[in-house]
Amino acid sequence: xxxxxxxxxxxxxxxxxxxxxxxxxxxxxxxxxxxxxxxxxxxxxxxxxxxxxxxxxxxxxxxxxxxxxxxxxxxxxxxxxxxxxxxxxxxxxxxxxxxxxxxxxxxxxxxxxxxxxxxxxxxxxxxxxxxxxxxxxxxxxxxxxxxxxxxxxxxxxxxxxxxxxxxxxxxxxxxxxxxxxxxxxxxxxxxxxxxxxxxxxxxxxxxxxxxxxxxxxxxxxxxxxxxxxxxxxxxxxxxxxxxxxxxxxxxxxxxxxxxxxxxxxxxxxxxxxxxxxxxxxxxxxxxxxxxxxxxxxxxxxxxxxxxxxxxxxxxxxxxxxxxxxxxxxxxxxxxxxxxxxxxxxxxxxxxxxxxxxxxxxxxxxxxxxxxxxxxxxxxxxxxxxxxxxxxxxx
Length: 394
What we know:
Blueprint: H1 15-23, E1 29-30, H2 43-56, H3 71-83, E2 93-96, H4 98-110, E3 116-121, H5 125-132, E4 137-144, E5 147-148, H6 150-159, E6 162-167, H7 181-193, E7 197-201, E8 226-231, E9 243-246, H8 249-262, H9 268-280, H10 283-308, E10 314-315, E11 323-327, H11 334-340, E12 344-345, E13 347-348, E14 361-365, H12 371-389
Parallel strand pairs: 1-12, 3-4, 3-6, 6-7, 7-8
Antiparallel strand pairs: 2-9, 4-5, 8-9, 10-11, 11-14, 13-14
Helix pairs in contact: 2-9, 4-5, 4-8, 10-12, 11-12
């Protein structure tokens, strides 16, 4: 008999594991996972980049490297954030195994048991599972169409000891909402005033389909109280497992030491290949193609939902990102609806509310399906909701 698993890891079932399982459910249309369209992966260009960098590099390509990652790629990220209004040096940037590892590293560095952690309600399930191991005290801050309710947050900051604030400002996962400039400025100020650290998770920034790009929260940070997290997963490929974080040197130093006990570093071969891809290809042109395709898919989903959902359902109308957020009549439970819905899968919202566990919401992904699947899936979803409502009709 093997020993018992540690208490801190005994979290029961994993909502993230269930999500991946839903995405792979046979004979159904998947709106559940946050999957990019595989047809848009720059496969040939990435293949050439790997081959070229391996051919040109010295044997040190396969050696241990800096915990921060390939210098050339960090310099490119430095130039990228400068265009967004963020001044930083390459040694303030750490390349990670996707944005998920960046979140986990920050959680490990800062959270002790019962430490205060403010998150949006609802929020990204992967971040919740990264935080759960450290057993924080959660403070659920309601979402509004222009981002987190900062009046509610400030009230909590005044009354509670909150160490971390986790937000997704652009096309939030799962609602699709985008935080206003006024709130970005105010949140940076609140973090400084109340000695909290904002984790600004921003993987959907470049996937805006209408309107103007907004500066990151980090652009308004004067005291180092904001850490920026981003990823190549949504714009190149999730399988590359390449993300990055940008933080104050006082955070990067202990984080680098901590990282050595996690995985030492990201794959240098992958990081060098991404750098080569960026040298040889027009990333902006690639992103324009992503926007064009995803804009069409988003419109197909919004049209399909408008035509098929009962009138007592509402849904978000995001200007970018990967997701649409659906609110069902109060008497419906999205988890039960999923059992009725044989032809389409989605992510029930209950576990995305870390305190209130509201059950009458669901998240839909539109990027991973074809437009025909989106049309059919919206019909299937509408029929399932109608079926679920039947018992309440007298």
